[in-house]
Amino acid sequence: MTTADLHIGRVVLRGTASAIDHARATLPAALARTHWPADEAIVVVRRLTVDGTASELPARAAAAAEHLTRRAADPWSPAADAAEAVRFRDALDYRACLVRDLLSGTAARRWLWRHRASLLARPAAQAVADLFAEDALALPALLERPALRDHLPALWRTLDAPAARTLLHAIGTATGWQEAIISALDPTHERRAEERSAFRRMDGDGFGEASLGSSPVHAVGHGASSAFGSSALRSALPIDLPPSDPRVVLQAVLALWTHAPATLAAATAGEILRATAETFVPAAPRTEPKTKDPREPHTPSAGASREASEPASDSTQAGTAATPVPPTSPPQGTAPPDHDANAVTRNTPAGDMPDKSPTRAPATPSRVSSVAASPATLPPAADVDFHTRGGGFFFLLNVLNLPALRDWRATLVEPQAGWRELVRLAGSLDFSPDAPLAAFLAATCDLATDGDPAAALAALPAGADLAPVRDAAFRHYGATALAAALAERPGRVRATRSHLDVHLRLSDVHRDVHLDIRRTGLDLDPGWLPWLGRVVRFHYDSGELAEKLSRAGSSARRE
């Protein structure tokens, strides 16, 4: 831990001026040197009270902080409100808990969020969007936390169009998908969408749904919508929202991100994202005049049935998850003042301004409904954590990420194309994954396994032309480095929906036989991969973890 990781709120010191100056200068470093929980834990301490001389004070404060850390409460439990310290597992756990409290309206009352006073002072929609934007690359994993499942309907009701636009800007900046997002937000494409919708309704003369469904772009859009529709992230959007509404585009981005992330970096990304957004907006029912037979029993209209099935838009549903705002802020449900709109403008890409047309009613949080989200089953959100003998398999990600393959990657539109092309490349190099790795790859490739992941991977049909990839692999890295990478290499893999961390033994990369891997950079951190939709990190460990990897490799060989 460093002083940069330490955030101190208010410090009250009593004593002589020189003693106070000395304490202020030494206290942060002394606290940074104390023992904190391992891994990526975040500890929030309510207060520390210590006394002593100027030289004693930092050490005693550090000792007191360490003592409180060992007794820290679970921030998700009611006991946290009476505790003197809470411990979050990691930054994802921290943000998920804060999101829950923002949406439930309890954040401003809990002491553990006092250090986020500036965030809590914002309107609820903007506060949630800004919190998500702090680590936009982790958004899929954050939204699929099991603890947030019951709060997702409130999330979609709270997010308004300006907040969703702010979040889309943050996603585009972090991922490199700006062009596709800006294109989808362009309302000039709505007229074409309406024309396609009318064209789709034509039956006869050889036109209709079947002819449009043959388009690869529309096939990707419908496939992503269908896969996303079973997730608890999916919400039922109001029928009057256009496909270019930021809330609709946000759902479309999330759908493609989880189902076919390579399409968001493809050459046709804008068209695919618009087509996906169209599938999230239900078509308005056509009303045809009909003479009602007085003998028929009364039946409600489709619109009346839909209204009856949706919850009433009262203050508790329309975003009372909002935290208290400054006195100058308007009451909930009213349009934000100009300075809030200007703040959104500053965070909005050029040419992507919020629609201020006077003919459109101002958006309110209650316009977004998510009644279908809560009962749905969440995809597994817990970390995937397993040991494998083939840890070097993930070095091939650097092959697919070569600049020379940029045009090739732009053609990928298959579901989970990044993972599938990785499996195809490894197969062409005669690599066979062990059972744990095969199970992971079959899941990430979205394959039906029937209990045999290895067979499902072997049966994966051909995808994009693999010749350019093989040529680039041998040209940039050479056969020796590729063979060394795919040789037996114990590793530990931890994955979420947004991150992939591969832990390898430090000793493995120092062997003479593997110098080609180091020399060519095949083992360098890939980082964010837009075509894979994940952040990938390689960790080279020694000590206890290295010993576990060694034991795991030996055990796997015996089996």
Per-chain topology:
Blueprint: H1 17-32, E1 42-45, H2 57-70, E2 85-88, H3 91-104, H4 117-120, H5 124-133, H6 139-143, H7 152-158, H8 161-175, H9 178-184, H10 190-201, H11 209-213, H12 216-229, H13 246-259, H14 269-279, H15 302-309, H16 338-346, E3 384-388, H17 396-400, H18 406-409, H19 417-428, H20 435-444, H21 453-458, H22 467-476, H23 478-485, E4 491-495, E5 499-505, H24 515-520, E6 527-529, E7 534-541, H25 544-558
Parallel strand pairs: 5-7
Antiparallel strand pairs: 1-2, 3-4, 4-5, 6-7
Written account of the structure:
The protein is an alpha+beta fold and 559 residues long. It contains 25 helices and 7 strands. The protein has helices at 17-32, 57-70, 91-104, 117-120, 124-133, 139-143, 152-158, 161-175, 178-184, 190-201, 209-213, 216-229, 246-259, 269-279, 302-309, 338-346, 396-400, 406-409, 417-428, 435-444, 453-458, 467-476, 478-485, 515-520, 544-558, and strands spanning 42-45, 85-88, 384-388, 491-495, 499-505, 527-529, 534-541. The strands form 2 sheets. The protein has a 5-stranded mixed β-sheet, sandwiched between helices. β4 (491-495) and β5 form a beta hairpin. α8 (161-175) runs parallel beside α13 (246-259) and α12 (216-229) packs across α14.
Summarize it:
The chain has 25 helices and seven strands.
Question: Outline, from the CA principal axes?
Answer: globular
Percent of residues in beta strands? 5-15%
Radius of gyration: 27 Å
Strand count, sense and barrel status of the largest sheet are: 5 strands, mixed
Tell me which oligomeric state these chains represent: single chain
Mean pLDDT: 76
Helix content: 40-55%
Total helical elements: 25
Backbone structural class: alpha+beta
Regions with pLDDT < 50 over 5+ consecutive residues? Answer: 198-214, 289-382
Q: Tally of extended strands?
A: 7
With strands numbered from the N-terminus, the spatial order across the biggest sheet is: 3-4-5-7-6
End-to-end Cα distance, whole Å, is: 40 Å
Biased composition (Basic and acidic residues): 287-298
Region (Disordered): 280-377
Biased composition (Low complexity): 361-376
Biased composition (Pro residues): 324-334
